[in-house]
Amino acid sequence: MLKVIHRFKLIIIYIIHMDTAPKAVMRRFEELKKQYLFYIALIKINGRYYVYRRTSRWDKQAKRPKSVSEYIGKIDNGGKFIKRQSPQTHRPSRDVEYTKARSLNVLDEKDMIIAKNLSMNSRISLSKISKRVALSQSAVERRIRMLEDKIGMQYSMNIDVTKLGYFTYIVYVRSNQNLPSRDMMLEELKAVPRIQLAAITKGRYCLILLLIAESNSSVKDLIRDLRSSKTFIAFRSKWYVTPYYLTYGFLPMREEFFKLLEGRIWHRGIDKNLNSRTFGAIRRSEYAVLKGLSSNSRMSFSEIDRRFSLTQGSARYAFERLKSEGIINEMSINMANVPMLYNAVILMNVIDSQKVIDTRKYLLRYMIEEKDSQINRISFGCDVYMPDGVFLSMPIFEEHELKDSIELLAENVKGISVDYLIVTEVLVGRFNYRKIDVTQSYHYDMISNTYRLKEPVAKIDYS
What we know:
Elements: H1 23-35, E1 40-45, E2 48-59, E3 64-75, E4 81-83, H2 109-120, H3 126-133, H4 137-150, E5 153-159, E6 167-174, H5 182-190, E7 195-203, E8 207-213, H6 216-227, E9 238-249, H7 257-262, H8 284-295, H9 301-307, H10 314-324, E10 328-335, E11 342-350, H11 353-368, E12 380-385, E13 388-396, H12 401-412, E14 416-428, H13 442-451
């Protein structure tokens, strides 16, 4: 067993000569990089290959974050990943294992302001941010580069797929059997462009899928195809489907999603019977903007014009049209390296609608309550309809946090039952972690308008 390496200077071999690693090792490592939501490194020690997580710990004496490396497993020469056995230091009443997080926050005050501004609008000007943090534009730009490295900051975009002709669904899979092999599921689910997130969970369900489809019939066909595939055909299980309506946060669209959109590009004049676009059809320039900004929401319009061979100014015009039509909702970020213990999903089912309405103020306040961490309390929230309820994705930082949250919700929001799932691995897609200004959320506006806050907050302009 590899001894834990405490000194970072011993891990300078992180930048190993990748061309010396066996191809099977490199293939597995590339798969792991897509699987994990944080930054990982491949390290060669005494002829063996180990995988480390690069993260940060708060140094109380120096009063600043300190880079550290955390061992998560090894890859043998045949490409098999042997995961480190996590210590069972806490189990929130179910069989859950994880490695203890090191810090609730790895950002200083100015970093937080910068991250919040970019969370609200990733295309915000450096001059606006520099005024808010009292730093020069060059200093802000350096800090942004450091945030990209320190927290794995990526630039993402919220696309309203319902305006492109899709419906959104959650699929819950329940079984008493062990799941099929992780690699088989990854290969199977990754190849389905309608699946935007797939996660292995512990609790009532063992697998959840968040997907898009053109109709109930389409999602029925999709699930039938999955269940009859070589991966799941022998897997005895029950699959439950519910439509959902997004209310908080968003899921970044996978690269595979744009394969679907290619078939929706409308070409003027090709079909004489098609004088105008049908619902869900998009222009080639709009497709280019959606695909380009989805991969990097700070990409310049001139770069999109160049990459997709558009005439100058086409991308900017298409962007404004997509925003006015509500297809593009937010230009934001995703923090890929978050020092959390694990991600939990809280499931709330409505038992008494009137009691829920009478006490929903607490739920709204709970969802937008500020935390002393680099991300918001809730990363993704939606209303589900069968059964009627709420789905909340919640990153967990402290051992007691999930239990406390469930107890608080059950006690204060009446007319509901509360359950939870532990996300043990995200196979496909990713949850979106960021730090938005909650005073500009839909939930804050509901509280303000419905319950009349005594001291409404002056809102900041992030445009």
